[in-house]
Every structure is written in structure tokens, then in C-alpha cells.
Amino acid sequence: MTAITAARPTSTRIRPLTLLPLVLAILVFAVYQFAPFVYQPELGATSIPVLTASRANNELELPINGLILIPIAAGALVLMGVWNLVNEQIMRATAAMTALAGIIILEYFVIFVMDYINEEATYFGSMGIGFWALLALAVVMLVQVALPRPRTTQEFQLRSLLANQESAIVIALVVLLLTVGISNPRFVSTNNILDVLQGNAYIAVAAIGMSMVIITGNIDISVGSLIGLLAILSGRLVTAGAPVWVAWAAPLLVGPAIGSVIGFLVAYMRVPAIVVTLGAFSILKGILIIWTSGERVTDMPPEFFLAQMRPLGIPMPIWFMIVLTILAAIWMRYSSIGRSFYAVGGNAEAARLSGISQQRAIMQVFMLNGFFVGIASVLYATQLNIIQATPPPSLEMFIITSAVVGGVSILGGKGTVIGAMLAAILLNTIRSGMIFINVSPFWIQAIQGILILVTVLIDLLRRRRQAV
After folding, report:
1. Which residues pair with 40 in a beta bridge?
2. Are residues 261 and 210 in the same domain?
3. How many separate domains does the chain show?
4. Is residue 77 in a domain?
């Protein structure tokens, strides 16, 4: 009887709660796009059918005061809904994250009420059905976390999710949006959110390659100088008359070439990576200064500015950041080369005994790092109408910090590129938030140092606990 029971196939019926995040996402998108939102006859407007109405039609400046939070929350619900369908064991985890999405939407209403009071407005009764529908959906997102759900295995328990570095970063981002956004609603304006994501995108792309390097137990502190050099190369090529595609492709070829030199010295000459990349940092910076003589690159043709393009209204760097992160995460998880990076960084001797070549893995990872640095340099070169003679100060530290704070173990063998991307967004959001609450942005370097120390200490404690 026991054997028969064990062999019985499990039910493939989808539970209603499994579909809840997707249903909520569809409802939020529907209200956001189609439901009448504000009815203001005193302003001469018959209705505002969509939430993205122009600022002139709304005395509360809704489009610039937190409105971007609603599609962000809806997009998060879509991702969680798909995740829930793939594996129902994470229902409790997605319930908690759905509640966070509800809190994000509620922040918009808090901002609205604060503006309503400050403006001494008197037309709450004229709000359209969309306003109240969104408020009701946000409340449902909070309440649904209390619904009974089946118990899950240890792997997907809620406390395991909260101990995950990526989840901790997401929670930190939500807290940051709540605290700074309520104190200064312009922090969560559409323009500022897009600026934070767009300005951070090339750093996040570079952090993908850096994450791979650190996972193998190495480091590259030359990335800042390399981004500056490749950006100037791209700009100089296009101003010299080269086709735009050549100017874009050159950094993607030169970057891996320089990475292969670094990888050869580390893998086959046995020179520590920090020594090689420190030397490369000085060499590349010197070449950059000599080549440019401190002069910026200008007069690029309009079609050169890849980062200024906006497919579907979303800046191109954000597309690069998201798509490359997803592809890199899948590649690191399922490809033999990606798994070899984890094996070499986790235990080089065990990797050697299992037939993995440490030298080949190190060569591959530094070449891949050069490729991602090449993409990052193109995004950096095309985001403004000029290319500075030198890259932003401490750029390499910002990239390394993004990887480490994102959960990549500085000792190697652990971490994800998704965490690195989220950490890059978090660091840039912190920098922007400090400006909005009148804190000197120079404190960001101190915060970076604190975050690195805390993350490394947590990683060491985890390793000791696992070793016991």
C-alpha cells in the first residue's frame, strides 16, 4: 500500500492562489491604462483617462509625484506570478513579495494625500474609479499575505528567502523608496527613477563581468580605466569618419583582447590578479591621458548615441541592463563554462580533479569581463553628447562594490549576476536619495565601504556556519 501511494502521480491542478499575483498584475495594468483616474471639472478637464496624463491637467502634479511606482509594482507582480506558476513551492515567498508591491503602490497614495493637504484641495469626491480601484488593489495585495497556503520545503521557506542577498537588496530598495519618497515625493518621480536606472545601467553591465571574475576567486581593478579608454576609442573612431557600427563594435573586440592579456598573466604566469590589474589600471590610465591630452571628444553624429535611444519609451541602457543580466544569469547557471567558474572559485583543487582546467576558466572569465566592459563603455560613451577625457572617479570601486554587495563572495565560488545588478541599482538609488534629503553625496564613498565590510563579514559568518 505504501508503494502504491508513493507512486501515485501528484496533482497538476493549478490552485487559485497560484494565479493571484498574475491576476493582480493584470488588474493593476488595466486600471493604470484604461480606468478614469481623476475627474476635475473645476480645471476644465472632463476626465483623465490614463495615469500618464500631462502635468497641465492635474494640479497635484500626479505624473511627477510617485506615479512611476505603479507600473514598477505591476511589473514586479508579473515576474512573481510567472515564478509562482513555475514552482508552487514558493507561494509563501511570492505572497510576501506581493505585499511589498502593495506597499509600493500605497506609497503613491500617501504622497497624493500629502500633496492634497498641502494644496488645500477639496475634490476627493471627484476622483475617478481608477483612483479607488488602485487603492483597493493595494489593500488586497497587503491582505492576501494572511491567506492560508500549503507548507513548503525548507528550501523555499520564507526565512530562507529573507536570508537571500538578492531579496535583502529588494527589501532595502523598497524601504528606501518609502522613506525618501514620502519625505520628498520628487524622489519617486518618473524622471528621477528613469535617471537612476539609466545612469546606473552601464555600471550594472560592467558589474556582470566583475561578478564572474570574483566568482572565480580573482578581481579586476582596471575596469574603470578600461571603460574610459574604450569610450574614447569609440568616440574617436566615429568622429574620424568610421561607420557607427564600427565605433560600437570596436570596444567589444578590444575589451576581450585586453582581458585575454590579463587572463594569460594571471592563469599561466601565476601573477596574482590584483597585481596584474593594478598594473593594467596604471598603464591604461596613462595611455588614456597621453592619447587625449585632457581633451573631450565632441561632434559625434546623432545616430552614434545608442544610450539616448528609447525603444517603447524605455531608455536603451535599461534594456541592455535587464536583457544582459537575464542572459548572463541563465548562462552562469546552465552552461558548462559558467559552472566551471563556480567550481574554480569554490575549490580549485576539486575542480582540477574533476577535469576542469583552472587556466582555461581564468582566461575565459577575463575575456568575458572585457566583453561586458566593452558594452558598458559604449553605453557610457553614448549617454551624453560629449565623452570626458577621464572616466568618473572611483568607477572601478563602484563596480566592485556592486558585485560584492550583490552577494558575490569575495573569496570566490558564490554569487549571482542578478544580485550585482540589484546592488548597482541600490547604490545609485542611495546616492540619489541622499541628494533629495540634503545629505552630501560625498558620503556615498563611506556608505560603500560600510556595505562592503558588512557584506564580507556576513559572508564569512555564513561560511563558518556551513563549515561547522
Report:
1. 45
2. yes
3. 2
4. yes
28-69 residue pLDDT tens:
888 877 776 654 333 333 333 333 333 334 444 444 456 778
Tell me the three cell numbers of residue 429: 538609488
Whether 200 and 138 map to the same domain: the answer is: no
Residue 218 has pLDDT above 80, yes or no: yes
| Dist. CA 65–CA 209, nearest whole Å | 35
Report the amino acid identity of residue 320.
F
Cell reading at 410: 569575495
Answer yes or no: do 223 and 136 share one domain: no
Residue 87 confidence (pLDDT) = 64
The CATH number assigned to the domain holding 275 equals 1.10.3470
Which of 152, 179, 200 is at the close of a domain? 152
Place of cell 598573466: 265
Contacts of 62 (CB under 8 A, 6+ apart): 37, 38, 51, 53, 112
* pLDDT value at residue 311: 86
The average pLDDT across 130-136 equals 86
pLDDT above 70 for 123: no
Output the CA–CA distances (angstroms, integers) from residue 1 to 5, 330, 429, in the order listed.
6, 42, 59
Between CA 323 and CA 111 the distance in angstroms is 32
Residue 410, SS3? coil
Residue with grid cell 578600461, as numbered in its chain: 226
In terms of domains, do 103 and 238 share one? Answer: no
Same domain assignment for residues 147 and 213:
no
Instruction: Using alpha carbons, list the distances in angstroms from residue 275 to 231, 255, 309, 381.
Output: 24, 19, 39, 28
12 in a structural domain: no
Containing domain of residue 100, as a range? 17-152
Closest CA to 387 of 288, 314, 311, 321: 288
Please, which pLDDT band fits residue 328 given cuts at 50, 70 and 90? Answer: very high
- Contact between residue 366 and residue 220 where contact means Cβ atoms under 8 Å apart: yes
Q: How much is the mean pLDDT over the chain?
A: 81
Residue pLDDT, tens place only, 281-311: 999 999 998 898 888 888 899 999 999 998 8
Q: Which three cell numbers stand for residue 105?
A: 503602490
Let me know if residue 130 belongs to a domain: yes
Query: Do 242 and 313 share a structural domain?
Result: yes
Long-range contacts of 127-133 (CB under 8 A, 24+ apart): 127/37, 127/38, 127/39, 128/35, 128/36, 128/37, 128/38, 128/39, 128/47, 128/48, 129/35, 129/36, 130/31, 130/32, 130/35, 130/36, 130/37, 130/51, 131/37, 131/38, 133/27, 133/31, 133/35
Residue 152 pLDDT grade (very low, low, confident, very high; cuts 50, 70, 90): low
> Does residue 1 sit within a domain?
no
Residue 428's pLDDT band (cuts 50, 70, 90): confident
